Amino acid sequence: MPSLETEKTRALRADARRNRDRVLRTAQRLFAERGLAVSLDEIARHAGVGPGTVHRHFPTKEALYLAVVIDQLEQLVAEAKALAAADDPEALFTQLTRMTAMGAENATVKSALMAAEFDLRTVAADVAAELTDQVAHLLARAQAAGAVRADVTVDEVMALVAGTFAAIRHAGAESDPERSAHLARLVLDGLRVRG
């Protein structure tokens, strides 16, 4: 039977996890809405936690926005796994649309990561590789079903996603979900088999 002290430690850990998650969600929203000028103290206030809580989990703003991006990649991996469980050759397009939408919505964070010279394939190698593996699985299934061109590789698909971010940014469509989705469809339609 667990001791009272063990139960208290578990409760504290669960509370710390909830606080960290609350800070991540709040930071994601505020970075997307207002850019990276938002201070850690302001994020704490909006998350309903003390500044010390934010600083304990994320000692710098760079650490926080990197954590936001890694968290989003982990969400995309989970979504790709769920899509892989369904027998739908269009699942690849669903996943790529989600990826481009998330990227467009968080262009500020991506720009900051580039400016800070963070390469996600290096600093978040495991989750970046896992996302690529999930996309590769969806791609292979779509190709086997004849929904996607046979001459496309996963590296090319990932390059198209990155190119879509650039197109959305070039068009100034980051804050216009309909327009950014339209641009993404234009790019991703090039993957489809033409009859």
Automatic annotation (TrEMBL):
GO molecular function, one term: transcription cis-regulatory region binding
InterPro entries reported in the protein's UniProt record: DNA-bd_HTH_TetR-type_CS (IPR023772), Homeodomain-like_sf (IPR009057), HTH-type_TetR-like_transc_reg (IPR050109), HTH_TetR (IPR001647), Tet_transcr_reg_TetR-rel_C_sf (IPR036271), TetR_SbtR-like_C (IPR049445)
Keywords attached to this entry: DNA-binding, Transcription, Transcription regulation
SUPFAM superfamilies listed in its UniProt record: Homeodomain-like, Tetracyclin repressor-like, C-terminal domain
PROSITE patterns reported for this sequence: HTH_TETR_1, HTH_TETR_2
Domain of life: Bacteria
Record-annotated DNA-binding residue ranges: 39-58
Limits of the HTH tetR-type domain: 17-76
Keyword ATP-binding attached: no
PANTHER family cross-referenced by the UniProt entry: HTH-TYPE TRANSCRIPTIONAL REGULATOR BETI, HTH-TYPE TRANSCRIPTIONAL REGULATOR RUTR
Name of the featured protein: TetR family transcriptional regulator
Top-level taxonomy: Bacteria, Bacillati, Actinomycetota, Actinomycetes, Pseudonocardiales
